[in-house]
Amino acid sequence: MPSLALFSPHLFRRLVHYGNVRVISGSSSNAAVGGDVAALVDRARHNDGAAFRELFQAHVGGVHRIVYRMVGPVPDLDDLVQTVFVEAFRSLPAFRGEALFSTWLARIAVRVTMHSVRRRPPRAVVLDDDSEPHHDHAGPERTVAAREGLAVLDRLLAELRPKRRSAFVLHVLEGYSMEEVGAILNATPAAIKVRVHDARRFIEKRCRRDPRLFDILAARAEP
After folding, report:
1. CATH 3.20.20.70: does it fit domain 4-221?
2. What is the dihedral of CA 148, 152, 155, 158, to 10 degrees?
């Protein structure tokens, strides 16, 4: 039986470049802002360009990770990430601070990607997908294992139904609570719990049917 600890967020980080912004998707970038988020949001509401840039730099890694896990390595991935921030900055007057800014941003990211998913045909993911940037200091064996592990994760996520995929990504991979995921997806915590359970069962069944999937993920998880 595969352990879903293999899907720990830190195992699937990516280098992301947006102009002069270089971040690692999967790192704790939100901590760079911390308690200053409210002040930055207030400044951004008043068209402060520096505040826009700081919010973008602090959150682009997390948004990129969510979008990637929702749609996989599609050609327009970066465009979707940019769309999330355009919509978020346009909607800043509606942000009341009742939820964390990162949670509010995640809701927009899911909405943008779900809309994109509904408009595009199903995507086949192959195990030799080379879209993942290499880690700077990884040896050849680790690089191959990392690439294969990411391709397997892409493949398994791509086979999930959109509602199950979004719930699984947000709760299992992103670490949001059931209540937070329910707020992001506009569903009850009970419904989210069912979706996550069904996604787990599906992934476990796929790994039992094809043990190679589990073996590749296990290799990816090794320190």
Report:
1. no
2. -120
